[in-house]
Design a protein that fits this description.
Rossmann fold; disordered C terminus; Glutamine Phosphoribosylpyrophosphate, subunit 1, domain 1; alpha+beta; homotetramer; disordered N terminus
């Protein structure tokens, strides 16, 4: 009955986030809220903490309807409240925050009134100069009501808009001040604008259904609503969609060689049925598995994946090695956000509640187990043990990414170095911890190949960031 | 489980609001959230739509805990969430919005981060130049996320703070730009600031309990938490409370003759156990009844009040006239915000569900019925009829305020003129509509007397506003 | 989203309850759920813990729609769920449980399927032989799913119905086994039945609106829905309403001299605008005040009531004594079930949060304060002190009922003797505890007079119960 | 805040249900509620509508704590309410109702007070003589408050208990009157009892962890809580667990040849990591796929399963045929109970929102698609079309069960014949409807083989029911 908000001020909150964005403009004037809902539904894996939809009617008065809240899209939205969101242009967002406060006021989209009217804004990514920008803005009188980077971006656009001829120009000018990773969907009363940072960290694509245009983080959202894929927004590009179609501003684009996509979109974040910049996520995972088979071969009876994201790489490993693919795990699909974690002293364990082993599939066999990554290493040892308990005679672990060694400043939530199992450890030492018979990682050199030769960021593996990371002392304050 | 927010942009929303504010600073460092809760509880009659509490610890790091939501204070707050609000300085707010959208993002207090840190702000009143100020601010890059005047005030304070020496100076400088009615409670990390507009439209008082200071809309909130009344904040005064006690800035104060309190605080809004600027609300209602008896006498057997606000005036009428006071109505105290209104065709009526007549008290008697006001006149005829149905031989209606004829621009929600029953009608014509045997209103001349001789605003009765009201064309846009 | 039920078995639960019942049968076939809702709304003061409505269509198939839940009627019911309850015959209930478990499965009405179809049953009262009846039933194979007496009554009716010619006969035969206080509203698929225990402890009246009949605990519920009062159900009478009108079975009625109404319906429980067995509740309270003035006179300047139930008696005292009636207290009408009680060590007190004194009304005056009862005496001393703090020079307390000395076995929740302030204390000793200048109680002899000469139960004042109370050892087990 | 219950009487409700049961008795006295919670979590796939847990302390007073509600186990239970359920013996239940009313009062376990104390009862299955039993019971005075068979069983046990020496004997005697499918978990204050109908329609197994015994519908629940599998309860067996261990009563067991397990437990209902009566569910699905490859071979490039239940059979088909196994579909794992279904006219479709095709995996390929069953056939055509849209050159559908032709009376919710796609149609006609290039079903003869040679029920495929089904006219009334 009541909407309750527990909020703390932004000085205590420097969240690294992974999000999904969606925008839609139906030139024929049909309501878009319901399609945005289904689009967010397809992007739910990108953020389960909060979500929101804002819409406006390009043929009507310049008003915006906004509905956002904490929870999954099917928890926040229902037939009744969705039916109250009228308009043929709109923006949607799903958000995930990995640490600290998760508060309603930080939900997106952000809807603001500014000098030229109203803006809706949804943002995926992480700015590395957000604090500097906040300080600069504050010294000219800005006030901040949230802790999200989107508010900083909104301010910059609003200030640039005072002198810019068009909203697109204001966005481009604002982008000149932004450092970091971002995919943006912005709606002014009569235009839908999409923008991607020059390095292309975060994905954004364009779709079309009848006379409606769509912007979305992933192509799977286009499939879900029955739209056709048009093209990806280029790294650094600003696209503007209005009644005259798509306009492009590529003035901020960098040479292709400098592009630096987050490779984890391919390895882990994205849905396998999505394509980014021409490369199929599913295919890139199959390739990762093939490379593992080439680079870390081992004799075995069956290749299995840790569900869900390990399955495609396992299939690739099986194809390349000729060892049969199998299913070793049953995942309890009801484990969700509100699941009660067992207490330390309890006989139940979180891993066993989520996963169970199919004994028939592994008993008496030498098993190659493929997982997408090892971060802290806290569950890998238990999964290996479960396979052995079920009768596997050998367990060989293969990881479809290189070892994590360094921080990410561009939107992926990676713990600090000392919590990373691979930090200051050899592969043999890691293998000893997880108790496998052998352990192999994907080689960093293979990453560009699985991404179809596109420019990628490998900072978390080799500390080669595409732009200067924030200084140590700043980062200390920045990561709360 | 989910906090859901349905929001529309401010251009569609020009709410006239009545609110209650409360601030507290415990110099000894004790938590204040629980006392703010009880204070808001005592002020609940001033706003039932939303409420909020924000607190900070003057001895700790500069962080703010904020909890706000839609609903009554005992719906939004519970032992669990209240216990998480730690801090010895804080601000609370209850809000009522009379028309259009009532949305979570408009709930107060507003907590902002600005150039000098963090501000919490709670506001009661209505600015008449809010739109102009928004436009001015927008042209220098401000963005607005709510439709409330408090956001405008926060911006002004934030901008003045850049050059001001103290927060108090910034508040005073911001006040120079504000036109309209306001009582403000603002907390900076180490100071509690109270301010009242120069005309004194809205009340604000200072209390003390042990080593803690309180600012509150009404003195009844002081009684409830066991605090002593110190004094009223003067119209135009800015008071600053810090570890050195109370400081006062009276530079914005006007000559007493120009003060223009809203007389409806005495007649209707406030709790009868409150005192404003030295005048007891209960006493002023008794006086209104006495004046009615003097100016509109009639022979009768019993004087009754329409509960609750008519009772004190009825007692005053009884005292002055010598006619016995009686109780004629039983009110169903469970009728609340979520009550299902009967449909037009239903045999039940809203009035009868809320009120029932005590037949024994009125049967066979000539009744004088005192009510505080008639706005649209839609229920008065039914109540008169209920008395007659119960056997009253005559029903004489006396109203403890003058007829409403004009708009209020200063925070009282009065419908437009054509919806006011008194507009373009004589008292005889009104009486015919409500079906009483006679009708009398309080004379405008009596208002100053019931307010103890203090300066009051009588604009809604005689169109004599203390400051130029917004121009007709502006108002057309301003009242949505 | 979820309906959650926390239930314990009945052996741990011996609740003394006060409830309200309502039944309606519209012979023309109109839906009755909405009128039952408004009727329960008028009876809400009789029970705030849970409520329910069940309806059936006498012209349709023999199915019942039931909606019940924990909370107030406007919390459990809303336009949407109410609109799904279709039928022209139905039963409603509001329930209050004073101790121990309050659980959803104990909410009423009870809807059962039995040998002759379906019964809906709502019950107000308390059986003193419920445990014996449960045991008897269990020994012939009954199973119990709730802890309420209504389930026992339903069983008895169901078993009698096997051999009885009519439902009315089954009810009458079941009543022969029931000992204690009860007002029953039962609906079979085609009949509405009302019954009152032979002593008439609990009230029940008959109303009519157009071609619809109503049974209700209090006449105020008839007023609320615009129905006319027809007559009271007699103590011991069973009335059956069907398409042929009202039939009466008075075979269980006792001589008038044996009737034993609960006098607390007049003093405290009922709404003042109700009438029971021909006596106005308001009038009986006025009379209680008059008798207090006669029997316990004292010189004073003003007579005030403790709201709400003390007000009528205060007015009676004022009339009789000639001392002016005044208002001394302002009650916070937002204090409800979910109010957070202040902690012991807190500076706030529950009494001061609920009540505040109007200083103007009592300062410098000798005050007579009328309250309806003193049970444990834990708040009286605080209220007296508040009056003195506000400047009252003397405070004389008068109580409009005699001192509580004994248990009630018939549905009124009275603590055990050792918790009653009057137990083993003289009036002087009590007065010393509450700190008043004098104290007076209504004399037991006056009770019959204030109840218009009707037969009443005075067991809690003089231990003269109308029937043998449960034996000591049984009561020990029975009161959990 | 409120527990709301919308209930209709049982005459309108003849639900076929599939449920999961769980019981636990810790002889050492440790609380079992948390383990029951995790056990229900593992059984969640057997019922998502409502759930409940009841517990009692065998060392303490004979009281029962019960918590049940509508929703998933992680919606109904949370750390707070779970921590209030104290006791070392208890029963849990998850429930699924496939049609009509789903109401809180029908949630299980049922907790009753009867002649010998308290019983908790959880039941999976469907009685075919429930209506007759209800009528018989009603004629001797029983009343029914729910529409579930469990209430009938509870009555029978309660009545038999009057003359029986032990609870086990009462259960055995009650079973003599039950016709149909049931797995029962019953807890008396000091004993945990499990029972399975003589045909063994529904599974039930025994587990042990330290000094605690478990009864569960599936072995996966044992794995989840870290318990060891002891053995299955035999068809017709009653087991009693108390401080002396497990006692068995096999007096109701039938010859093995008459056993009639529901084969759909193997094909569809159960989790693949469970074993029933010695046969692995996963293995039986692999076998179904192998048999399909033998009996309905076809040339193709890839074999894919419709997730989740088609995957194992697809793997079996791939093994047998030598055609590679692949993954063709991505399932949106966030589609849950509260998902908003697209409207008919909407461009979105439910199937596309739930499933998306991996184009890379099927484009240009001849695809064999394995599904577990076709009931109404409303989604199969869309999935086939999705594969073709993604570029599959041929789509051959293979179903790992025979065609559904007849009703099930024993707990599986199958629509009436005229809604079954296979009713009155040849396989060619069905294939035409779903638009595949070929269609093959599992042969009925293969069913016994995939169930490891155990006795199974094949009634829904060949109308050979293990016991006389209810007569036509009775069924008409019985299925509402």
């Amino acid at each position: 009955m009541n909407s309750i908000e527990l909020q703390q001020n932004w000085e205590d909150d420097g969240l690294h986030e992974e999000c999904g964005v969606f925008g839609m403009y139906d030139l024929d004037g049909n309501d878009v809220a319901s399609s945005i809902y289904y689009g967010l539904f397809a992007l739910q894996h990108r953020g389960q903490e909060s979500c929101g939809i804002s819409v406006s009617d390009t043929f009507g008065p310049r008003k915006v309807d906004l509905l956002k809240g904490m929870g999954l899209v099917n928890e926040v939205f229902n037939s009744e409240n969705l039916s109250k969101l009228h308009g043929n242009i709109g923006v949607g967002h799903v958000r995930y925050s990995t640490a600290g406060e998760s508060i309603p006021s930080n939900a997106q989209p952000l809807v603001i009134n500014y000098v030229k009217g109203t803006l809706m804004l949804a943002h995926n990514g992480n700015l590395i100069n957000a604090n500097e920008l906040r300080d600069e803005l504050a010294y000219t009188g800005a006030i901040f009501q949230t802790t999200i980077d989107s508010e900083v971006i909104a301010y910059l656009v609003a200030r640039e808009r005072i002198n810019a001829k068009t909203a697109q120009e204001a966005v481009t000018n604002a982008m000149k001040k932004l450092k970091g990773a971002y995919a943006l969907v912005i709606s002014s009363p009569r235009k839908l604008i999409g923008a991607r940072d020059p390095f292309g960290f975060k994905p954004l694509c364009i779709g079309k259904r009848d006379n409606a245009y769509i912007l979305a983080s992933e192509t799977c959202a286009l499939d879900t609503i029955g739209a056709e894929f048009v093209r990806d927004v280029l790294p650094g590009e600003v696209v503007t969609i209005d009644k005259d179609g798509i306009k492009s501003d590529t003035s901020m684009c960098l040479p292709k060689a400098k592009e630096a996509r987050c490779v984890f979109e391919y390895i882990y974040f994205a849905r396998p049925d999505s394509n980014f910049d021409g490369v199929s996520v599913y295919h890139s995972r199959i390739m990762a598995g093939r490379f593992l088979a080439m680079d870390s071969p081992v004799e075995a009876d069956v290749v299995v994946g840790v569900p869900e994201s390990g399955n495609a790489a396992a299939m690739g490993y099986a194809m390349e090695s000729g060892i049969p693919y199998g299913t070793a795990f049953v995942k309890n699909s009801y484990v969700g956000r509100t699941f009660i974690k067992p207490q330390q002293k309890s006989r139940e364990s979180s891993v066993r509640i989520k996963l169970n082993v199919l004994k028939e599939a592994v008993c008496g066999k030498r098993v190659i187990m493929i997982d997408d990554s090892i971060v802290r290493g806290t569950t890998s040892d238990r999964i290996v043990q479960m396979l052995k308990d079920a009768g596997a005679t050998e367990v060989h672990v293969r990881i479809s990414s290189p070892p994590f060694l360094y921080e990410c400043y561009f939107g992926t939530d990676i713990p600090s170095r000392d919590q990373l199992i691979a930090h200051n450890r050899t592969i043999e030492e890691i293998n000893e911890i997880i108790g496998a018979d052998s352990l192999g990682y994907l080689r960093v050199e293979r990453l560009k190949e699985i991404a179809g030769g596109l420019g990628i960021c490998t900072g978390c593996f080799d500390e080669k960031y595409p732009m200067e990371p924030p200084k140590e002392d700043i980062r200390g304050e920045y990561i709360k």
